[in-house]
């Protein structure tokens, strides 16, 4: 039997999770002796609290926020849930006779979509889902057009986790501010899921970005898993979504995970330092593959589609559909050749893993039952030679199945 793990592995699934940076691991290990409860007033407890607050201040400085606007959670998913559910719960507590309205998009992360749907199913909110254009971009004017008197929250992700498209967050924020100013309104609040964006996009001045709340996590920035952040502007009120010991300024109960908090702060610091240089490097590698799509088509005869805008996408994201072969089969075959990528099955599939994002940008699904999407996400360890191997591997796999179908 062939031992696949003896082969060199090429990891191209950084959008799912990143390895922990060695510098992050080092600062996390330094906190191992700080086991006391940070809410204790004895000496060791105070030292733990100091580590947490130093990390909070570091994150606040990086995004140009106040330290009391940074709240630690257990994940990016929890940060999204706290932003959405907390906003609605607070609004209902002061305006119980009004049904709140949420605006989001059809291509948000499930952490946003599923919580909106949960509230909708309970008949606690109205939700308007904005469709993107064929390239996966949300038009800010489309959001402006559906804001109404009871619109309480707009939640649009900074960059899509599947197809990598970058949304015009500053323009969306401008439309919301314009509405509020001209209608003398406090709402809607603007939230963005920035989990995929932090490695590559602008976050160094949260005021300029224009959002009221922003969610992100450690796993996507070469930090620890199981830790997230919700940035919440000082003048924005939300309610906790569960009760407990009242940690995180009363908004998120539960003893803080000091090691992961310190690790996340360090990971964000490193990310900001290398962001510009790393983005330029990955754009070159990304475009090298995209420019070779026609070459793969010519060599195999398969129709290959690039999903999402070619330019307004994350530096590390490539998402393709290969018509006539299932995405799951492609991922398995690539894995056998030592290449790790991720997939979503065809948009009309009943499979829970099917891609609603691809469905949204295609408007109608292909009749090809074997169509799906493969996400190739690059990272700090990716080299151009890895892409050369990926291209040659795809050609071998596709030709193998083309010949198999002929026979």
Folded structure, characterized:
With 407 residues, the chain is of the alpha/beta class. The chain folds into 2 domains: 8-18 and 275-399, Aspartate Aminotransferase, domain 1 (Alpha-Beta Complex), CATH 3.90.1150; 22-272, Type I PLP-dependent aspartate aminotransferase-like (Major domain) (Aspartate Aminotransferase, domain 2), CATH 3.40.640.10. Helices cover 41% and strands 14% of the residues. It contains 12 helices and 13 strands. It has helices spanning 22-29, 43-63, 76-94, 110-121, 140-146, 169-183, 206-209, 258-291, 293-300, 327-336, 356-362, 384-406; strands at 10-11, 70-73, 101-105, 126-130, 151-155, 189-193, 213-217, 228-232, 304-306, 317-322, 339-340, 342-344, 373-377. The chain has a 7-stranded mixed beta sheet with strand order 2-8-7-6-5-3-4, sandwiched between helices. It is globular.
